[in-house]
Please model this.
Amino acid sequence: MMGQQTGGEARLFYAFNLDEYVPEHHILRRIDRALDLSKLRHHLADFYSHTGRPSVDPKKVSLTDPLARWTAATGPAFYAYSTNYLADMACGIIVDVEATHAHRISEVESTKVMVDRVEEQFGLKPERLIGDSVYGTAPMLSWLVDDKGIEPHIPVWDKSVRTDGTFSRSDFQWDEAEDEYRCPGGKALRSRQRHRGYKPGTVTRANTIIYRASELDCRSCALKQHCCPNEPRRKIARSVHEAARDVARRIAKTPEYQRSYYQRRKVEMLFAHLKCILKVDRLRLRGLTGAKDEFLLAATAQNLRKLAKLMAQPPPIDRIGAPA
Model:
């Protein structure tokens, strides 16, 4: 027999109407009006579990993600992953996102992955790429200029400036036709192998070519104390990607570069919004794959908020023509 019901079972159930708890002007309602997600559950049906997640012995759960990277880039060290955005500067829309280990080299390389992926999937290719000096390495600039034909609006990573009062590399004039530098005294600095076609051993492990002045010229030079006071002759290391670096230096002197510098704040605001508004300062999933999933969902949420705001805005009045 099932026994007699006492009426207490009703407390196990309650009525809940979501519409009563979402304010009329909430951003979720604007997103709902702008986006049709009726087919999303069917599209993701294969990813739902029919048995639930298996339980894990608490003794086997590590308190830290073993694949995360120990980093101190923003203060006290901690384990973390990095999220990298490829964003449109006109509207601040996130075009692509890539999760990497918290390491500068991985973050820079993720840019290549995103640029190639967006071009392959959507046929979009940026005319210029805006970034900080971390992306201003010689190989990265060469990839942008020579391989992709993209203008690098990026500060050049350059450590050739001297602070001891002697001449820096910028004080030497480069002669492309003669493949040589000219010092402030008018003397030539040449490499072992001139006029292209570098021999093995000419290019160093750092992908540079060493240009040296004549020891005789330096010995009798009146500017030696301002050039190489502690060395018999002056030498300059020139990157094999120096031509691309020169392109970035020329762009840095243009008004367009200054506008790009201020537009970079749009990307910085996306990361600030990610942490301060969406509160994505800690990940729930483990491993790089889990980080990719969470960062992709977070970027999607940011784009949906942006979409709702853009669609709710009326057209600018100053762009609407009126009869005279």
In short: The first helix runs from residue 27 to 34. Residues 283 and 291 are 7 Å apart (CA to CA).
